[in-house]
């Protein structure tokens, strides 16, 4: 399993003994009479609170043996930055093999162009068609062709393999800005809001991320904010049981109330990370997009700096529609990161070039299958090598 998180260096000091944090059992009250929340010193405006979450609740009391004292907030100087250890050669080969297999359709279309090819207008025309068919989009395709022609001319490239190598370098340069680490420990708790359309793999991605975060020493709390679909709550509860992670859920009610409750429960427990699931929706469903905006506003009332990460989960098989999703959700929520899933079938891969050129939101993770190890941090060089090998 690859490491993908980044932390700032901490001065050497004697380690303090921290109380052991035991995750609470999954909580799924139908109508909680006294939600387990910690009320801020200055409660949010009553008019802005979810209707089923009164502003005058008493502070939550941690259960003996389950909750720890709230952790002190780290200062900027106290946050660690640790370079992630490199995966074993066997693990990396396995991951690259799965990634290459998932991108094989696009890879075959691109690589066959350079076999015994002459460097002429016909080659450029075929390359243009292949890039457009890979969902790279008009803007990214035109940029790649223009830059490639410049390289061929200035560097006097005469062999097809040289042109392919030049294309590899240009693709890496284009995708490199998307490659960024997810920084942990900068807030306590770090609140992550997860959005996406139905079927993108959002809830499954949350479960995989929870296990990855635990492997990096983070305690995790999940909020079942998809109150419109009962199966989503059940699915998240299953991931919670599998990972021994607490889940805040309600049978019905306002999803913003669930998110608000989860943030304050995490503050009371000293939890490291809160991940808020949300209902899947299409960007054209304006009333549902407004619901997402409300969840974000209410989270901020529970913790002024939250949410610290707003992630969009995208199905890698949706082609140019994925770019439309990025634009719509970014305009509505201000995205901080992306997760692209299902790069294991007919996914074309070129959509990342379109995103990089049009709306370069950081791409934290890509997924090539259902297993936990199939979700890995995005690496531009590895991705391009899988695409052109």
What's the N-to-C terminus distance? 23 Å
Oligomer: single chain
How many H/I helical runs?
12
β-strand percent reads 5-15%
The helix-strand sequence is EHHHHHEEHEHEHEHEHEHEEH
Percent of residues in helical segments? 40-55%
Low-confidence segments, given as residue ranges, are 8-85
Compute the gyration radius: what is it?
23 Å
Q: Give the overall shape.
A: elongated
Strand arrangement, major sheet: 5-4-6-3-7-8-9-10
Mean pLDDT: 78
What characterizes the major β-sheet? 8 strands, mixed
Structural classification: alpha/beta
Summarize the structure.
The chain has 389 residues and is α/β, with parallel strands linked by helices. The chain contains 12 helices and 10 strands.
Describe this protein's structure.
The chain has 389 residues and is α/β, with parallel strands linked by helices. It is 41% helix and 11% strand. It has helices spanning 89-102, 104-111, 121-133, 137-154, 160-175, 202-215, 230-243, 255-269, 286-302, 320-333, 351-358, 380-388, and strands at 5-6, 182-183, 190-196, 220-224, 246-248, 273-277, 309-315, 337-341, 363-367, 375-377.
């Amino acid at each position: 399993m690859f490491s993908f998180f980044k932390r700032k260096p901490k001065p050497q000091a004697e380690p303090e003994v921290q109380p052991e944090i035991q995750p609470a059992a999954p909580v799924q009250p139908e109508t909680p009479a006294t939600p387990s929340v910690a009320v801020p010193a200055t409660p949010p405006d009553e008019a802005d609170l979810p209707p089923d979450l009164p502003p005058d609740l008493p502070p939550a009391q941690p259960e003996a043996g389950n909750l720890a004292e709230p952790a002190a907030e780290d200062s900027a100087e106290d946050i660690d930055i640790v370079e992630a250890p490199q995966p074993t050669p066997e693990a990396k080969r396995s991951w690259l093999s799965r990634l290459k297999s998932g991108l094989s359709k696009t890879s075959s279309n691109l690589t066959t162009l350079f076999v015994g090819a002459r460097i002429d207008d016909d080659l450029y025309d075929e390359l243009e068609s292949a890039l457009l068919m890979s969902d790279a989009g008009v803007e990214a395709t035109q940029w790649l062709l223009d830059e490639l022609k410049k390289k061929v001319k200035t560097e006097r490239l005469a062999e097809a393999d040289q042109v392919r190598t030049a294309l590899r370098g240009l693709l890496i340069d284009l995708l490199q800005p998307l490659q960024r680490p997810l920084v942990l420990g900068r807030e306590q708790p770090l609140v992550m809001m997860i959005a996406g359309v139905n079927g993108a793999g959002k809830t499954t991605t949350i479960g995989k991320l929870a296990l990855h975060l635990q492997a990096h020493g983070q305690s995790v709390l999940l909020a079942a904010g998809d109150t419109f679909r009962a199966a989503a709550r059940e699915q998240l509860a299953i991931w919670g049981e599998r990972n021994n992670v607490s889940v805040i859920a309600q049978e019905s009610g306002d999803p913003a109330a669930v998110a608000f409750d989860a943030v304050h429960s995490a503050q009371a427990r000293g939890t490291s990370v809160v991940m808020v699931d949300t209902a899947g929706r299409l960007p054209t469903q304006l009333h549902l997009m407004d619901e997402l905006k409300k969840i974000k506003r209410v989270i901020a009332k529970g913790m002024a700096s939250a949410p610290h990460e707003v992630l969009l989960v995208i199905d890698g098989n949706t082609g140019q529609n994925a770019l439309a999703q990025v634009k719509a959700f970014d305009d509505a929520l201000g995205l901080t990161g992306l997760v692209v899933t299902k790069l294991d079938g007919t996914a074309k891969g070129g959509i990342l070039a379109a995103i990089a050129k049009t709306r370069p939101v950081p791409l934290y993770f890509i997924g090539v299958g259902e297993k936990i190890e199939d979700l890995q941090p995005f690496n531009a060089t590895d991705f391009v090598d899988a695409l052109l090998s």
